[in-house]
């Protein structure tokens, strides 16, 4: 019997918190015919397996719509539609936040300084109404959604406190005599309601802004693949869409073009930049039978290859999928304030109701009046402003301090997680090293007076060569003001080097194999130097005439200044440091030894780096991944804390949550210190916000009244609420002056 189960990943819209995701998941899982359902809040998607004979996709969509959310079931353009919806929501929220702030400013001025001006309450009412019920409508809608599922979060607190403050102020504006006849001043709290809405909207705006940028890394990865392909059909060439390429198609790639799919070269040769896969700066020579990969860039020369893997099977497609999975598989930030609010809100409501009841029973003649005031005062003083500001203000100051020190931080999650890191993975090329081969040594086998002339011949040969290492030799010789001679009969020798003639004499530049072919011997004393170069993982180029070795040139990707010190500092903090590289084991071993790293892996492909991060996480490690290339992107996405080098690829920078602008490894330790200081400040802020509530709520309820007749005025409660927010902001600003 044919299996009619289908598994799809569909974008979900309308989710604003983790409990929304839980609601969608539980609703879809309960539908008959659905085998499994998992909602990923981080990337706003539903992975669902269902039996097509029992349930239709449109019916699943209707079930999700019934609880206030939606599914995008047009699988062809689903991601584009989701991105468009997120962007439109962000632009709408931005507009609403600006208008809400503009309307709230005069309310604050009137409420704080001009409360006795004519019609002050009515003006504030007119300005506060759209702020609370139009611009802030999402808080009330989300609070109702939470209540349906028996849950509460920050939206519940915002809706409850601003709603009660508004209704109480509205009553006092329309019927001030109710309180005046009982000897009580009818205060209004429109400014408190409006300002809370604006502050929280601003926080949500920053969150949505991050979401609109979340897919840029994926877009850039997809952009590595050309849209059309040149296919060979018989004796003719035909340009077709990449989506139409089939396994076995013969494809032509010219100089400078991107390779469209994975395959095997069968004609021609070239050098291909594979840094997106290996991370190594030196282009790889491709000959008959060599493998080529989608997204890599052909440099000089053209070749033909046969397509072996197309579509979702290519290595580039798998990198894209792994980045998506890793970005989405992380649990959303544990929102401490939301968790606390889940308990705090019901407790506050209960205390406010108990205050009213207690006053009605025990308060005598004015029991109801005092009870109603106490109830409102409890709700006003318990407003989440201090709680809501505790985390974002510390994060904002922390992010600003990071930027001042050359550390760009994209989100709160990495700043919160950094202090827990106990394992740091460093990519080699471009992270520990400069990522560019340079000529480090040249040993001549001829008298000094002849070296200038032969340098000119070497420069001429290397200037004509297409080999990636030739550029490093040319650059070094050009710096010495050496000018090239005019050579003839230049010939590139595939896999060995190059040869040319000058004044009738033949000269060679290339590998040791080229010397052996032409029976050119290397003197014993120079062999010792070559052995030393190889131990230091340097690449050796031989320059000779037809009869004699003239010079040995050593090239290496040099270790960055400060790398050794930075690695030692991390290790002194008890952090395990690992090095991963796509380079060979000999080079990896030499670099690891030089910088003091004992844990390293060589010849690691992108998937291997990703797997290594996951393996360390399974072992209970909190992992920071530091990289600079496309090949690091999925490992960066999977890591708990991802750090990109500022001079690295745009994709690595997009995926990473932190970027070191200067590419100085010493900044990693500073970033982890900043995380520690920021988290400490957040904890202090939450402590003071709760101490304030712990003391303020019982007093607002009237606890002191039986002892000294003191009953807290709602106006004073509003001022106390503002003071708690000021204390939280002030404590956060202290971060600015702490040393990293």
Number of domains in the coordinates?
Answer: 6
Structural class: alpha+beta
The main β sheet shows up as:
7 strands, mixed
Provide the residue-averaged pLDDT: 80
- Helical run tally: 28
Low-confidence sequence ranges: 326-334
Q: Work out the number of β strands.
A: 26
Give the end-to-end Cα distance, rounded to a whole number of Å.
65 Å
How much helix, percentage-wise, in residues?
40-55%
Portion in strands:
15-25%
Using the alpha-carbon principal axes, give the shape: elongated
Rounded to an integer in angstroms, the radius of gyration calculated over CA atoms is 34 Å
The largest beta-sheet arranges its strands as 14-26-25-24-15-22-23
Give a structural overview.
With 740 residues, the chain is an alpha+beta fold. The chain folds into six domains: 72 residues, Alpha-Beta Plaits (2-Layer Sandwich); 136 residues; 87 residues, Calcium-transporting ATPase, cytoplasmic transduction domain A; 143 residues, no CATH class; 138 residues, Rossmann fold; 125 residues, Calcium-transporting ATPase, cytoplasmic domain N (3-Layer(aba) Sandwich), CATH 3.40.1110. The chain has 28 helices and 26 strands. The strands form five sheets. The chain has a seven-stranded mixed sheet with strand order 14-26-25-24-15-22-23, with helices on both faces. Helix 6 packs antiparallel against helix 8, helix 14 runs antiparallel to helix 26 and helix 14 runs parallel beside helix 28. The longest helix has 36 residues. The chain is elongated and about 120 Å long. The two termini are 65 Å apart.
């Amino acid at each position: 019997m044919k299996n009619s189960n289908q598994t799809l990943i569909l974008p979900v819209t309308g989710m604003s918190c983790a409990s929304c995701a839980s609601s969608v998941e539980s609703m879809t899982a309960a539908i008959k015919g659905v085998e499994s359902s998992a909602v990923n809040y981080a990337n706003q998607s539903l992975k669902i397996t269902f039996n097509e004979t029992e349930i239709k996709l449109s019916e699943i969509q209707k079930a999700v719509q019934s609880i206030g959310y939606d599914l995008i079931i047009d699988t062809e353009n689903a991601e584009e539609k989701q991105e468009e919806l997120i962007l439109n929501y962000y632009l709408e929220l931005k507009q609403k936040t600006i208008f809400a702030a503009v309307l709230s400013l005069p309310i604050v001025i009137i409420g704080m300084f001009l409360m006795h001006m004519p019609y002050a309450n009515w003006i504030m009412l007119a300005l506060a109404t759209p702020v609370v019920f139009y611009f802030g409508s999402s808080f009330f809608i989300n609070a109702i959604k939470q209540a349906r599922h028996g849950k509460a979060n920050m939206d519940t607190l915002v809706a409850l406190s601003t709603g009660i403050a508004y209704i109480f102020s509205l009553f006092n504006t329309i019927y001030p005599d109710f309180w005046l006849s009982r000897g009580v001043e009818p205060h209004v709290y429109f400014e408190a309601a409006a300002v809370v809405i604006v502050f929280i909207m601003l926080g949500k705006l920053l969150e949505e802004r991050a979401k609109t940028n979340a897919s840029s890394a994926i877009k850039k990865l997809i952009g590595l693949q050309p849209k059309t392909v040149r296919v060979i059909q018989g004796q003719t060439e035909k340009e077709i869409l990449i989506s139409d390429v089939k396994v076995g198609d013969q494809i032509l790639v010219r100089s400078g073009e991107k390779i469209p799919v994975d395959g095997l070269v069968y004609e021609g040769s070239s050098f291909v930049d594979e840094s997106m896969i290996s991370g190594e700066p030196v282009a790889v020579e491709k000959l008959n039978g060599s493998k080529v990969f989608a997204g890599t860039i052909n440099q000089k020369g053209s070749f033909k290859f046969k397509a072996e893997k197309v579509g979702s099977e290519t290595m580039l497609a798998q990198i894209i999928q792994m980045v998506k999975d890793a970005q989405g598989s992380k649990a959303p930030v544990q929102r401490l304030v939301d968790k606390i609010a889940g308990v705090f809100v019901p407790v506050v409501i209960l205390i406010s109701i108990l205050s009213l009841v207690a006053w009605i029973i025990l308060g005598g003649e004015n029991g109801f009046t005092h009870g109603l005031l106490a109830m409102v005062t409890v709700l006003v003083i318990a407003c989440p402003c201090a709680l809501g500001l505790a985390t974002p203000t510390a994060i904002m100051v922390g992010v600003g301090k990071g930027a001042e020190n050359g550390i760009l931080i994209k989100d709160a999650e990495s700043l919160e997680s950094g202090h827990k890191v106990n394992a740091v993975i460093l990519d080699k090329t471009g992270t520990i090293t400069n990522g560019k081969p340079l000529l480090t040594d040249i040993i001549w086998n001829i008298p000094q007076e002849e070296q200038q002339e032969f340098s000119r011949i070497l420069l001429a040969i290397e200037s004509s060569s297409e080999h990636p290492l030739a550029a490093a030799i040319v650059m070094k010789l050009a710096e010495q003001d050496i000018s090239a001679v005019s050579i003839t009969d230049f010939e590139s020798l595939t896999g060995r080097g190059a040869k040319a003639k000058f004044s009738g004499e033949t000269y060679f530049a290339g590998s040791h194999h080229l010397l052996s072919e032409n029976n050119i011997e290397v003197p014993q004393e120079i062999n010792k130097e070559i052995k030393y170069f190889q131990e230091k993982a340097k690449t050796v180029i031989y320059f000779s005439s037809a009869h004699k070795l003239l010079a040995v040139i050593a090239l290496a990707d040099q270790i960055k200044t400060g790398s050794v010190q930075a690695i030692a500092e991390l290790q002194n903090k008890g952090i395990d440091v690992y090095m991963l590289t796509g380079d060979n084991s000999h080079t990896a071993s030499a670099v690891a030894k030089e910088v003091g790293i004992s844990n390293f892996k060589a010849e690691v492909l992108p998937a291997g780096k990703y797997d290594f991060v996951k393996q360390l996480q399974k072992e209970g490690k909190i992992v920071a991944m530091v990289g600079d290339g496309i090949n690091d992107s999925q490992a960066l996405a999977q890591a708990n804390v991802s750090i990109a080098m500022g001079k690295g690829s745009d994709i690595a920078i997009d995926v990473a949550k932190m970027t070191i602008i200067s590419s100085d490894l010493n900044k990693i330790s500073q970033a982890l210190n900043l995380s520690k200081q920021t988290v400490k400040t957040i904890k202090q802020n939450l402590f003071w916000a709760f101490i304030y509530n712990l003391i303020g709520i019982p007093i607002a309820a009237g606890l002191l009244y039986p002892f000294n007749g003191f009953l807290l005025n709602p106006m004073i409660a509003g001022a106390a609420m503002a003071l708690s927010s000021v204390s939280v902001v002030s404590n956060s600003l202290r971060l600015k002056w702490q040393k990293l």
